[in-house]
Design a protein that fits this description.
Helix content: 40-55%
Structural class: alpha/beta
CATH superfamily of the largest domain: Type I PLP-dependent aspartate aminotransferase-like (Major domain)
Strand content: 15-25%
CATH class of the largest domain: Alpha Beta
CATH topology of the largest domain: Aspartate Aminotransferase, domain 2
C-alpha cells in the first residue's frame, strides 16, 4: 500500500521552485466569483483579479461550460491543421475591432514579440534593412522575453543578461515633443500602452495619442498598442483605443482575453499580416481549441453594453470610496485609471510602501496589487457584485486605518 502524499504547504515553494517570485504566505485553493478560499478555509475578497486576468471572476459558469465542453472534443491539434474554436474567435475579434487578421499565441510577451517582429518584417520588406528602430516609453512593460523586456523601458528587468537587441529607443511617456525629436525614417514602429500598467496606472493624454498617430503616419512607422492589460473590457470599452478614437496598426491582447486560461492575440490589418507568410513566425500551442473556446465565450459576454457600462459604473464606486479614504487617512494623493484598472498613488510619507499596504490588506482577508512601489492597484472582476465591492472596500479601509494608526 503506497504512502499517502505529504500535504502541500507554502514552504514547498521555497524548497522546489525557482526563487523568481515571492508569493504571499497563504495558498488559495478555490475561487468563486470574487471570493477566494485558502487552505485553512479563510475567505478573501479578490480585488487583484489574477493581475487583470480573471475578467469574469473565478469559475464563471459559462467559461467552465465552454472549457469542459471543448475538453471532451479536442484539446490540441497543432497548426498543421486549423480548428473551429480558433476560427470562431478570430471572426469575433475581427468583427469587434479594427483588425482584419489575428495571430494567436499564449501570453502577452508572445503577442508583443510577434508584434515587434511583424513591424520589423514589414519595414524590411517595404523599405529595407535600415528601417528597424522601435521606439518605446520609459517605464513601460511589454513582457519578459529578452526582446520584449529590452523594448520595455525598465532597466531593472533588462540589465544583467548580456548585450541587448539593437535599434531600440526610449522616450518619456506623454511627451509628444520628445517623441518627435527622435523619430526618423529609420523608425519602423512606436509601441505604447494606452495606460501604463506596471509603472503606476498612468493614462495617456488624448492629444498625445493623436499626435503619436500623426507622427507614425508621417514617418511610415507602425503604431502598436500594447493592450495586454487594458484590453477586453478592463477600461469600460472592449479595447482602450476605442475610448480615444485612435486606431493602431497592430494591437496585442492577453491577460483578460482568456479569463484565466493562457491565450493571447495579435490583431492587425490584412496588408500587414501578409508579411507573415507561411513559416515566417509560429507557435506550437497558439490558437489551441481549449483556449479559443474559453476566450470566445468570454468576449461574447464582455462585449455587451450591460457589462461595459457596468465596468464604468463600478469605477465610480471605487473612485469615490478610495478618494474619501485618501482624504481621511492621508494615505493616497491621487486615484488614477479607467474602468476597473485603478491605481491609488501613495502620498509622500508612504512612498515606497505599497508592499506594506498589500500585507495589511491580506491580514483583513483582501487581495489587492501594487503597480510599482508607490501605487496600490485594483483590477477586480469586470462583473464583481456591488456587495463584494462594498465588503472588499470595508476590509481595505480597516487595513488602511490600522496601517496609518500604527505609522
Amino acid at each position: 500500500m503506497s504512502a499517502k502524499p505529504a500535504p502541500i504547504q507554502r514552504a514547498d515553494f521555497d524548497q522546489f521552485m525557482v526563487p523568481n517570485y515571492a508569493p504571499a504566505p497563504f495558498i488559495p485553493v478555490r475561487g468563486l466569483g470574487s471570493r477566494v478560499w485558502d487552505q485553512s478555509g479563510r475567505e478573501l475578497v479578490d480585488f487583484a483579479g489574477g493581475i487583470a486576468v480573471n475578467a469574469l471572476g473565478h469559475c464563471h459558469p459559462r467559461l467552465v461550460e465552454a472549457l469542459t465542453e471543448q475538453a471532451g472534443k479536442l484539446w490540441h491539434i497543432s497548426n498543421v491543421f486549423t480548428n473551429e474554436p480558433t476560427l470562431r474567435l478570430a471572426k469575433r475579434l475581427v468583427d469587434a475591432t479594427f483588425a482584419e487578421r489575428v495571430f494567436f499565441c499564449n501570453s502577452g510577451a508572445e503577442a508583443n514579440e510577434a508584434a515587434f517582429k511583424l513591424a520589423r518584417r514589414v519595414a524590411h520588406d517595404r523599405f529595407g534593412e535600415d528601417k528597424h528602430e522601435i521606439i518605446s516609453a520609459y517605464n513601460s512593460f511589454h513582457g519578459r522575453t529578452f526582446f520584449t523586456v529590452s523594448v520595455a523601458g525598465q532597466t531593472k528587468y533588462s540589465d544583467g543578461f548580456g548585450p541587448k537587441p539593437q535599434g531600440i529607443t526610449h522616450v518619456t511617456y506623454n511627451d509628444l515633443a520628445g517623441l518627435e525629436a527622435v523619430m526618423s525614417d529609420r523608425t519602423c514602429a512606436v509601441v505604447l500602452e494606452p495606460i501604463q500598467g506596471e509603472s503606476g496606472i498612468r493614462p495617456a493624454d488624448q492629444a498625445y495619442l493623436e499626435g503619436v498617430r500623426r507622427l507614425c503616419d508621417k514617418h511610415n512607422a507602425l503604431l502598436i498598442f500594447d493592450e495586454v492589460q487594458t484590453g477586453v473590457g478592463r477600461t469600460g470599452d472592449l479595447y482602450a483605443y476605442m475610448h480615444h478614437g485612435v486606431v493602431p496598426d497592430i494591437l496585442t491582447s492577453a491577460k483578460g482575453i482568456g479569463g484565466g486560461f493562457p491565450i493571447a492575440a495579435m490583431l492587425t490589418t490584412s496588408a500587414l499580416a501578409a508579411h507573415f507568410s507561411v513559416g515566417v513566425h509560429g507557435t506550437t500551442y497558439g490558437g489551441n481549441p481549449l483556449g479559443c473556446a474559453v476566450a470566445d465565450a468570454l468576449i461574447e459576454i464582455v462585449n455587451t453594453p450591460e457589462v461595459l457600462n457596468g465596468v464604468k459604473a463600478r469605477h465610480e464606486i471605487f473612485r469615490a470610496r478610495l478618494q474619501r479614504m485618501g482624504e481621511q487617512y492621508g494615505l493616497f494623493s491621487e486615484i488614477r485609471g479607467r474602468g476597473l484598472l485603478i491605481g491609488a498613488q501613495l502620498s509622500e510619507p508612504w512612498l515606497g510602501k505599497a508592499g506594506q499596504v498589500l500585507a495589511a490588506a491580506e491580514k483583513e482577508a483582501l487581495m489587492v496589487l501594487q503597480a510599482g512601489p508607490d501605487v496600490v492597484r485594483f483590477a477586480p472582476s469586470l462583473v464583481i457584485d456591488e456587495a463584494d465591492i462594498d465588503e472588499g472596500l470595508q476590509r481595505f479601509e480597516r487595513a488602511v486605518a490600522r496601517l496609518t494608526t500604527q505609522g
